[in-house]
Each structure stands twice: as structure tokens, then as C-alpha cells.
Design goal:
This protein is α/β, with parallel strands linked by helices and 502 residues long.
Length: 502
């Protein structure tokens, strides 16, 4: 990517081209023309990286005005048009490119990405397979095929494609924002399972990120992994969908021997039923009783969780309120179970946590090391509150209340409630995770969910005041990794310092 000074030079050149439309802006010399095209494409690529789509499209089109058949310019313009949602124009460019060279593997891959963006997975799969025929050594193509198999529910086929990708390219490197990087982090990611969403946390950082796809049955070069990292970050976060992968991850991190953020063995203790048992007796915590119901054991359980109807039923391993309902009677319970005949369920005691004004308030915090950081306050008129599904965008008073909570959470959660949160952090034992909770009428912290799978969004929509809270969480995560690396460096002999920087 261009440096800051080069990027400004490209901006000046683009403005020059835009200001002289219709004039002979490029001298006749072929070298100058080629340099200008390269500069415009570089400018477009830099703009695309900043998500400045109109500027990127404009730059690519300027380049194609100078050389209409320029292959790279057309491919990049098609990609930018696809990202902007202009699928028709992107497809027309790719059609022309494939007519020029039917065996262009990159163009076939771009067709696959175009169809994928339109959720046409059958045509996307066919295009990616066409690309594989023409270039069997492109690991990225196998990643796309694996994504399609995951989305369409064929996990076995997805793992086969991921294994092919890992064999070609075990590590996916994301460079640091500085050179040299402060340190290197190895991030374990299990495809087809729930992982701690990394985009916001590690999107732009002073450390290099190496993503390792953990696929059962694949052998990994432990020595190479150890030499290319200073800290391991386990992103595999949901025991309900990664129960078979987490022991493999634990064995791998033990063999690597580096400090680990969120040990897989600790993640194994964070299913909903275990969490409820772990923190259920903590002072000032009100934790609904939870039972896990396997398919073979689903007779009348309502009284076993110590409460009559209503109760909450959720399909294990689901999030965002999907397959999660309040059940009022035995008929509704049986209907819900029949709709998911092979699933495990969580049966949870229902707690009415409405505030005195009749609204439901759900608070989310993130724990990063010893820090407890507010992320959002969702306010709604329904018990199943999700920030994105509330009507908060149309109620300034709700936004003001959330902004005040983010600015000073201790004004809502007093010393006793904050002490309860610290006790939860200690009991759970993870390095980085989130909690969804409420405040009961008796002052207790009502705990709904505690795990490392919670998402930190990096878009704010009508809630721009959330940006500062997100930045605090990301900075705390970066600082957690930096402290971990520093402790590890100071704990080893000087003669071994820097061994991980090979």
C-alpha cells in the first residue's frame, strides 16, 4: 500500500485528472502513460482499503479511460463495483474479461465472489471450481469453497476444503500498522464454529497477526508456529459448537508453549449451564437456573429448574436471539422441541427484569484483563432485547441514557454491583470475554450470558457516541496482549529474547 506521502501524491494526480476532463492530460510518451495508470490503480486500491468506494471506482475508471483493456484495472473495478452493490456492472466487466481469456483463474474467482455476494451459492461454487481447475495452488479459492459448504450446511465438505487451504498456506498474515511490529500474535480460528469475532479487535494494530485455521486431522509445524509468534490468542469461543475442536486447540497451545489469551480448556467451562452453576452463588448476582436438555432426555422438565411456566428454551449453540423463545405452557414447549428434533436445548428460568418505567434494559460489558468496560445499553419493550432490533434510533432519551452509561457506568452500577462483576470475572477465569446483564429491582446483577463469543461492532449507525466505548475496548485488548508479551519476555533469559521474531 502507498505511504502517506505517496498517497497524497496520488490524490493530487487524481484531482488533476478530474479537473482536466476532456483535455489531453497525458503526454504521448508510453512510459508516462503506464506510470499514470499504475498510479491511479494504486490510488484506487488505497481508497478501497479505506472503504472510500466512490474514490476507488473513480480512480479505476480514470485508468481505464487511458487503457480500456487494462486487465488489472478492469478486475479491480469489477471488485469495487461489487462491493458498492452494482452487481450488473461488475458482471459485465467480468464477462468481457472472460471472453478475452476463458482460462483466467483470477476472473473465474472474481465471478465466484460476485455470485457469493448475491447469495447465489450454486453459481459461486461452480465459478470457484472453474478457478481451481485453472489454478489448484490458490489457497484463497479453497477458503471460499469452504465458506460456501459451511453456509449450505455441509460441514464435512467444508473441513475438506479448509484442510486443502491450510496445506497450501498454513498462516494468513495481516501486517502491523508499524514496521517493525511491536510483536506477533498467533490467532487460532476454527472454521465452521463460533469464534470471538476478530474484525474490530485486531483490524488495525501495532502487532502482526497470523491467523491459523485449526482443522481436525491436520498436522501443524509446532516449531514454525512458535518461531513466528510471541503470544497465542485463542478465538475458538463457543463450547456448544466447538466441543470436538477445543481439546485439539488445548493440545496445540500446550505444545507451542507460548502465553495464551483465553485458554481452550477454560473456554470448555463456559457453556450456559456450567456458567450458571459457577457464578450462581456469588453475592449480589441473580443467575437464572439453566439446564441442558439432550435429545434423548426431553420429558417434562419444567419443575426440574425450580419454576413453572413461563420458561425460556434455546437451541444450544445459537446466538442473536435465534431459536430462542419464551414458552408459556406444555403445548408450546412440545411444539418448539418438535421443530428441532436433533438439537440440544438450554432450558432457562424466566426472570422478569423490567425497570419501573416498564422497559427492559440489557447492559453489556467486556472484561479485558482486570478492566471492566461498558459496550452498550439496549432498551426495549420486549423481554428479548437486542440492540439492533430495538427502536432506540427513534427515541433520543434512550440514546442519551445509553451515552451516559457508556461515559460513566459506575453511575448505574454502584460499588456493590461493580464488585459483583469483578467476582464474575474471577470465577470465569478468561482473559477477554463479555457479559449481558440487567439490574434487578433488589439491586442484584441479573446475569443472562457470559462468554467470549460476543461481538464488538465497528459500525455505529445512528449511535455515533458508541465509538469511544468501542475504541476503549479495542485499546484494552491491545494492551492486554502487549502486557502478556512483556511479561513473557521478562521471564526468559536475555540470550533467548527475540527468539520469536524469526
Amino acid at each position: 500500500m502507498p505511504t502517506a506521502s505517496n498517497e497524497e501524491h496520488l490524490r493530487v494526480r487524481e484531482r488533476h485528472l478530474m479537473g482536466l476532463q476532456g483535455q489531453d492530460v497525458v503526454p504521448a510518451g508510453p512510459d508516462h502513460r503506464a506510470d499514470t495508470i499504475a498510479a491511479l490503480i494504486a490510488f484506487g486500491t488505497a481508497a478501497l482499503a479505506r472503504n472510500e468506494m466512490p474514490a476507488a471506482i473513480r480512480a479505476y475508471r480514470h485508468a481505464l479511460e487511458l487503457s480500456p483493456n487494462h486487465r488489472e484495472g478492469r478486475i479491480r473495478l469489477a471488485h469495487a463495483l461489487k462491493l458498492s452493490g452494482d452487481f450488473v456492472a461488475a458482471g459485465e466487466l467480468l464477462d468481457a474479461l472472460i471472453a478475452d481469456d476463458p482460462n483466467d483463474a483470477i476472473v473465474h474467482k472474481e465471478f465466484g465472489r460476485l455470485y457469493f455476494a448475491q447469495h447465489d451459492y450454486a453459481r459461486a461454487r461452480a465459478s470457484f471450481l472453474d478457478a481451481v481447475v485453472r489454478n489448484a495452488n490458490d489457497a484463497d479459492i479453497y477458503h471460499w469453497l469452504a465458506n460456501i459448504e459451511t453456509i449450505t450446511g455441509n460441514r464435512a465438505a467444508a473441513l475438506e476444503q479448509y484442510a486443502r487451504a491450510v496445506a497450501l498456506k498454513p498462516l494468513m498474515r495481516v501486517p502491523a500498522s508499524v514496521a517493525p511490529p511491536d510483536f506477533r500474535a498467533l490467532l487460532l480460528f476454527a472454521p465452521g464454529t463460533a469464534n470471538t469475532p476478530p474484525d474490530t479487535l485486531v483490524g488495525q494494530a501495532r502487532y502482526e497477526r497470523c491467523f491459523l485455521l485449526l482443522v481436525p486431522g491436520v498436522s501443524y509445524d509446532v516449531e514454525r508456529l512458535r518461531e513466528n509468534a510471541h503470544v497465542v490468542v485463542n478465538l475458538i469461543s463457543d463450547v456448544d459448537v466447538a466441543r470436538d475442536v477445543l481439546p485439539i486447540a488445548q493440545s496445540l497451545v500446550e505444545r507451542i508453549g507460548l502465553p495464551v489469551i483465553n485458554l481452550p480448556a477454560t473456554i470448555m467451562q463456559t457453556d450456559r449451564a456450567t456458567v450458571a452453576a459457577t457464578i450462581g452463588e456469588l453475592p449480589l448476582c441473580h443467575v437464572p437456573r439453566v439446564e441442558r436438555w439432550p435429545p434423548a432426555d426431553r420429558t417434562d422438565h419444567a419443575d426440574r429448574i425450580g419454576a413453572a411456566f413461563p420458561l425460556l428454551l434455546r437451541v444450544a449453540g445459537t446466538h442473536n436471539g435465534d431459536h430462542f423463545e419464551r414458552i408459556e405452557n406444555a403445548t408450546e414447549r412440545n411444539t418448539f422441541i418438535a421443530a428441532h428434533p436433533s438439537a440440544d436445548f438450554y432450558a432457562t428460568e424466566f426472570i422478569d427484569y423490567r425497570s419501573p418505567d416498564g422497559y427492559f434494559r440489557k447492559y453489556r460489558f467486556f472484561f479485558s484483563g482486570d478492566e471492566i468496560l461498558p459496550y452498550h445499553l439496549a432498551i426495549g419493550d420486549h423481554w428479548k432485547v437486542h440492540h439492533a432490533k430495538t427502536d432506540m434510533a427513534n427515541h433520543p432519551w434512550m440514546q442519551h441514557e445509553e451515552a451516559a452509561f457508556l461515559a460513566d457506568p459506575t453511575a448505574v452500577f454502584g460499588p456493590a454491583q461493580m464488585q459483583a462483576l469483578h467476582a464474575i470475572r474471577t470465577a470465569i477465569g478468561l482473559d477477554f470475554f463479555g457479559i449481558d446483564c440487567a439490574l434487578g429491582a433488589d439491586g442484584r446483577v441479573v446475569v443472562f450470558e457470559v462468554n467470549a463469543s460476543m461481538l464488538v461492532h465497528n459500525t455505529y449507525g445512528p449511535f455515533p457516541y458508541k465509538a469511544a466505548a468501542v475504541e476503549r475496548i479495542k485499546s484494552a485488548f491491545d494492551a492486554l496482549l502487549a502486557r502478556t508479551v512483556t511479561r513473557a519476555r521478562t521471564a526468559i533469559p536475555d540470550s533467548m529474547a527475540g527468539a520469536g521474531a524469526k
